[in-house]
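Narrative of activities, Objective 1.

The group set out to show that a structural description can be obtained from nothing but a protein's sequence at a throughput compatible with the screening campaign. Below is one input-output pair from the validation batch, recorded exactly as produced.
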Amino acid sequence: MLHSVSVVPVLLTAAVLIVSGAAKLRQPDDLAGWDSLGVPKSLQRSWLLKLHPWGEIGLGAVLLVFGGPIGTLASVGALGLMVAYLLLVVRAVRAGEDASCACFGTRKRVT
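Output recorded for this entry:
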């Protein structure tokens, strides 16, 4: 029972990453969205913007497929990515700026 419960967060995270990445592929974002969220200028590169959805899909797939050390590394990577997303959103909301995000494909105001 404990083992099956401990797998649920990994499966949910993988699903969110895959759905989010697929949505971003259908409706690509632009660097203006990253700028409004406060993504550091050093990361605002068009090639990163194009690879971002594929990275999310790949990370989600690795979470689904691999266990052991590779699965652990993927989990740590996913945790780091989710914390970075959370920090960007919290900072944008606290600043009261009119930030928007295409987190699941369609650009919407961050609230």
